[in-house]
Write a structure and sequence with these properties.
This protein has 149 residues and is mainly α. It has six helices and no strands.
Length: 149
C-alpha cells in the first residue's frame, strides 16, 4: 500500500482548488447564458464539481491531512475572462461553451497527472478515476449542446 505523503496531499489540494474554480466558473456561466439547455448543463456541472470537492475533501481528511480552502488566482482570472468575453463576443453562449470544453479537457489532464503518480493510495486513485470518467462522459455529450446555439 502506498503512503499518503505531503506531495500527494499537495496534488490533491491543487486539484481541489481547481474543482472549486470549476464549480464557480460553471455557476458564472449558467448566469450568463439564455439557452435553457446550456443553463441546465452549466448548473449540472457546477453541482457535479461541488460533489467532487466534497469527496476530495473527505479523502484528504481521511489520511489526516489539511484541506486548503478557496479557489486559485488562475481560476478567478479565468472567470473574469469569461465575463469580459461575454461582453465582447457576439455569440456569448458559444464562447462560454468553448471555454467550458477547454476547461474540461484541462481538468482531465490534471486528473491523469495525479492518477499516474504511483504513490497515490488506491482509494484516492479510485475516486480520481471515477471523477475523471464523469468529466469525460460529460465531454462526450457536450457536442449535442454545441448545435443548440
Amino acid at each position: 500500500m502506498s503512503t499518503y505523503t505531503e506531495k500527494i496531499s499537495g496534488k490533491l489540494n491543487d486539484l481541489l482548488e481547481k474543482t472549486y474554480d470549476a464549480e464557480k466558473g460553471f455557476k458564472k456561466a449558467s448566469e450568463n447564458v439564455n439557452n435553457q439547455a446550456l443553463k441546465n448543463y452549466f448548473t449540472k456541472k457546477a453541482d457535479e464539481r461541488y460533489n467532487f470537492g466534497h469527496d476530495l475533501k473527505t479523502e484528504i481528511k481521511s489520511f489526516g491531512e489539511n484541506v486548503d480552502k478557496g479557489g486559485s488566482l488562475t481560476g478567478s482570472a479565468h472567470r473574469t475572462w469569461m465575463d469580459i468575453k461575454g461582453f465582447i463576443t457576439i455569440d456569448n453562449e458559444e464562447s462560454m461553451l468553448e471555454e467550458a470544453i477547454r476547461g474540461e479537457k484541462a481538468a482531465i489532464n490534471e486528473y491523469e497527472d495525479v492518477i499516474a503518480d504511483n504513490s497515490v493510495p488506491e482509494s484516492t486513485r479510485s475516486l480520481l478515476i471515477s471523477q475523471k470518467n464523469q468529466i469525460e462522459n460529460g465531454l462526450s455529450r457536450i457536442s449535442t449542446l454545441e448545435n443548440l446555439n
